[in-house]
Design a protein that fits this description.
There is one protein chain. This protein is α+β, with helices and mostly antiparallel strands and about 450 residues long. Helix 6 packs parallel to helix 7, helix 8 runs antiparallel to helix 9 and helix 12 packs antiparallel against helix 13. It is built from 16 helices and seven strands. Strand 6 and strand 7 form a beta hairpin. The chain has two domains: about 280 residues, PAS domain (Beta-Lactamase); about 160 residues, Hypothetical protein af1432 (Orthogonal Bundle). Strands 1, 2, 3, 4, 5, 6 and 7 form a seven-stranded antiparallel sheet that branches.
Length: about 450
């Protein structure tokens, strides 16, 4: 009788605990996935809209007669390239506002069976789509239709005068959400099965023996529920409790991997936007990628670890992302900056930190963006850090950034020769730049025959 009671109790307790864990972790994990998809499609739409010529789009009439126009064919070609560069998309389109309230009209579209310029669409019940005429936006919920589950991102198309003339939309499949749901169900079913088997097999074991591993599982569930997705339950009893703990750990690792994948997707989207905006200025085109290459080469010369070099390759390209918040009239001024303009420019590291803060980067990673203009003697910006508080990776990015800037043309000065730029770095070693990093750049440039 006792074994039966213990078996029943254990079955109910294990089932309740596993279901409680599922109820606690699934909503947040699902929302993280969905939020990541929103950021991704919004970023793709924002980047893709820059590739559409708003003035050309204005010449295309929103009706079937547009199909024979060269401007329409060029628009369709650009939309096809956008679709081809983003495998997760299923449909890319543009539309303009119609004469009636809430009405929109398709102009270009690829990914469907047949292009349909002039097709009217009642968007009065789609506030997220309307928001796209004002700035990058995305659906707040998944959309289910006969073609599957999808989510859409939107961004305005502007003409040379800066006026919004149309809307670009991208529809992305939601297979990641479906795969996540299926994986979660499998893990939950496995956990339930192991839990029930555990209760049946251990029905005759003394409650004191059962309590110890059960307490560990409960403690682990509570820590994961509190947001510690890196926590793993360690149970080495050699029985079904250990299997349950292993299943639990696999589940938490899957959720953690999914969050990391989402973070990397966001970084790639922001990187694409950064490079697209940088390409608009002939003086800074390719600067971020060049700084990334220099930083990686310096790190190799200094014998840095593979993990540190990977961090530089992944994030150095974003070191100037904060310049998105600085007006082009200041960035592209063909003369030396005034004191006020220099103060405005010096805000870009802090702005970059605020832009990337939601990505949950580590302090070391975020410092590559926020601190790359700090100086060894503490007179840099934005925080005035000295050598003791500036990491080696930040010091590497600082030297690589300064070198590439000096050997590149700028609106108010000519490009220096590599030897001149290197001499300037040596003159400022110890005050502005870390001497050993400057020496590493020197060795690398001489080894490559640049100097």
């Amino acid at each position: 009788m006792f074994r039966r009671k213990v078996t029943i109790v254990l079955t109910l307790v294990n089932t309740a605990l596993i279901l409680s864990l599922a109820a606690a972790t699934y909503p947040k994990a699902f929302e993280d996935h969905l939020d990541g998809m929103r950021h991704t499609v919004r970023g793709i739409a924002a980047t893709a809209s820059l590739a559409i010529d708003g003035d050309l789009h204005q010449t295309i009439p929103p009706d079937p007669s547009a199909k024979g126009l060269p401007a329409y064919q060029e628009l369709q070609g650009r939309l096809r390239r956008i679709l081809g560069m983003n495998p997760g998309l299923r449909y890319v389109w543009t539309m303009v506002k119609g004469p009636r309230a809430g009405e929109t009209i398709f102009v270009g579209d690829v990914g469907g069976k047949e292009p349909s310029p002039g097709l009217k669409y009642d968007a009065s019940a789609a506030p997220d789509l309307w928001n796209g005429f004002n700035g990058p936006a995305a659906d707040r919920k998944l959309v289910k239709d006969p073609w599957g589950v999808s989510i859409s991102g939107y961004a305005p198309i502007r003409n040379r005068a800066g006026h919004v003339v149309a809307l670009l939309g991208v529809d992305a499949y939601g297979q990641q959400i479906d795969q996540f749901q299926q994986s979660f169900r499998r893990s939950l079913a496995l956990s339930l099965g192991v839990g029930i088997l555990l209760a049946v097999l251990l029905g005759g074991i003394v409650a004191r023996w059962i309590a110890r591993p059960l307490d560990r599982l409960v403690h682990g569930m509570r820590r994961v529920e509190a947001g510690e997705l890196t926590h793993e339950v360690q149970v080495a009893t050699g029985d079904e409790f250990q299997e349950a703990a292993a299943a639990f750990n696999r589940m938490t690792r899957a959720v953690k991997r999914a969050r990391e994948d989402l973070k990397e997707s966001l970084i790639r989207a922001i990187r694409s936007l950064m490079l697209a905006l940088e390409a608009k200025d002939p003086y800074t085109r390719g600067h971020s990628e060049s700084v990334t290459q220099y930083a990686a080469e310096i790190a190799k010369t200094l014998g840095k670890s593979a993990r540190e070099i990977e961090t530089l390759n992944r994030l150095t390209v974003l070191h100037d992302i904060g310049k998105i918040g600085i007006h082009d009239a200041v960035l592209q001024k063909p003369a030396p900056f005034s004191t006020e303009e220099r103060q405005v420019i010096q805000r870009h590291p802090s702005i970059g930190g605020k832009i990337l803060q939601p990505l949950d980067l580590s302090p070391e990673e975020l410092s590559l963006i926020v601190s790359h203009h700090e100086r060894e003697d503490g007179s840099g910006y934005p925080q005035g850090l000295d050598r003791s508080r500036i990491s080696d990776l930040v010091a590497i990015v600082s030297v690589a950034d300064a070198y590439d800037a000096m050997v590149s043309h700028r609106p108010h000065r000519r490009a220096m020769k590599p030897a001149e730029a290197l001499a300037e770095l040596h003159r400022n070693a110890g005050t502005q730049f870390r001497p050993e990093v400057v020496e590493a750049l020197d060795r690398m440039l001489r080894r490559k025959g640049v100097v």
